[in-house]
Amino acid sequence: MGAYILRRLLLIVPTLVGIMAINFVIIQFAPGGPVERVIAQLQGTDVSATARISGGGGDFSGAGAGGGADAATSKYRGAQGLDPEFIKDLERQFGFDKPPLERFTSMLWDYARFDFGDSYFRDIAVLDLVLEKMPVSISLGLWMTLISYAISIPLGIRKAVNDGSRFDVWTSAVIVVGYAIPGFLFAVLLIVLFAGGSFLDLFPLRGLTSDNWEQLSWPARILDYFWHLALPLTAMVLSAFATVTLLTKNSFLDEIRKQYVQTARAKGLSERQVLYGHVFRNAMLIVIAGFPGAFISSFFAGSLLIETIFSLDGLGLLGFEAVINRDYAVVFATLYIFSLLGLVVNLISDLTYTWIDPRIDFESREV
Q1: What is the model's pTM?
Q2: What is the gyration radius of the CA atoms in the chain, in angstroms?
Q3: Nearest of 172, 142, 138 to residue 155 by alpha carbon
Q4: 122 lies in a domain?
Q5: The three-state (H, E, C) secondary structure of 268-306, written as one string
Q6: CB burial readout 166-203, b (16+ within 10 A) else e
Q7: Packing angle, helices 328-356 and 291-300, rounded to 10
Q8: Domain end: 89, 115, 141, which one?
């Protein structure tokens, strides 16, 4: 197992480099960029800016028309009337005065030392910015995963035991409908019904806590926290609940039909003893081993629209705004962090298999 873990850890390096290289190349051909963003702000045509330009790169307000960069000779759209030296200063600030290969290798060297630099358009280090937004995404991802598993596993087991029954049929219909409804659309429905949209006004529509949270007692803080999470979690759990339920049911059905189950029944064991003493461990292997991956998936990718709809300032919203605002420092740093965590979690998922079922031996397999 030690050799397998070492091989997987060593594979993380080229995989990370490949992920970063592909996205770096894509960015080179993408229209717009931080320089164009600054020019658009100066020209008053920037409609996507949600962050302010500050610190670290000098004063952008000093862009004069003295030199008069000609639009036909400038590679930046909208640069007409701006001093060419000012454009060069912008390029130096954002690192675009260097060749792409040099920029890429320099970025990888910095990231290898976990030096992610500062945001282009926020006066804050990228790592501090990620840590600032992380509590919201952790709350959504962790609770969504725990709740969906807590509901789906018992429901999936009961559906497998009662396969083909009326209970199985009507719950399957509910699950299919739940899976078919997009989470963001269900979130809008919840707002309309319960957050002051058109009917009831029972839940808050913004933030993770109330404005007076610091003044509340600890029991009141806990209630306030879950009060704010109620609607976002309900919207997020819908599709995840359906997926895990069907996975659990199919896994149990596959195990129930195996020969060792028939042998256990022939020995006179009760159905409960067969189910939880023999079937459960094998059937839950794929479900439990997928828990780390499910959490990471919901943590990083599943909450963008939910965070936007419920005004929750988390990592999903941060990544979206960074792309829109061409804040490449945040885009590449978050991509690196998320990719690294995803690769590590995949390794943890494999190790979880061996922990649950020691018969599985990755050591004898080719990576």
Answers
A1: 0.72
A2: 26
A3: 172
A4: no
A5: CCCHHHHHHHHHHHHHHHHHHHCHHHHHHHHHHCCCHHH
A6: eebeebeeebeebbeeebeebbbebbeebbeeeeeeeb
A7: 170
A8: 115
Q: What is the CATH number of the domain that holds 321?
A: 1.10.3720.10
Q: How far apart are CA 84 and CA 66, in angstroms?
A: 9
Residue 132 lies in a domain: yes
pLDDT tens per residue, range 340-350:
888 888 788 77
Q: Identify whether residues 190 and 80 lie together within a single domain.
A: no
Domain boundary among 115, 140, 156: 115
Other beta carbons within 10 Å of 154:
12
- Number of structural domains the chain divides into: 2
Q: Which residue has the higher pLDDT, 60 or 297?
A: 297
Domain housing 70: 16-115
* Statement to judge: residues 167 and 254 lie in one domain: yes
Quick count: other Cβ atoms within 10 Å of Cβ 31?
7
Q: Residue 358's pLDDT is what?
A: 65
Q: What angle do CA 53, 59, 62 make, to 5 degrees?
A: 120
Shared-domain flag, residues 329 and 291 = yes
> For 97-113, how does the pLDDT look when each residue is reduced to its tens digit (9 = 90+)?
888 899 899 999 999 99
On whether both 41 and 170 belong to a single domain, the answer is: no
Q: Could you tell me if 347 and 8 are in contact, meaning their C-beta atoms sit under 8 angstroms apart?
A: yes
Let me know if residue 5 belongs to a domain.
no
Question: pLDDT digit string (tens) for 290-342?
Answer: 777 676 766 665 567 788 888 888 887 888 888 888 888 898 998 898 888 88
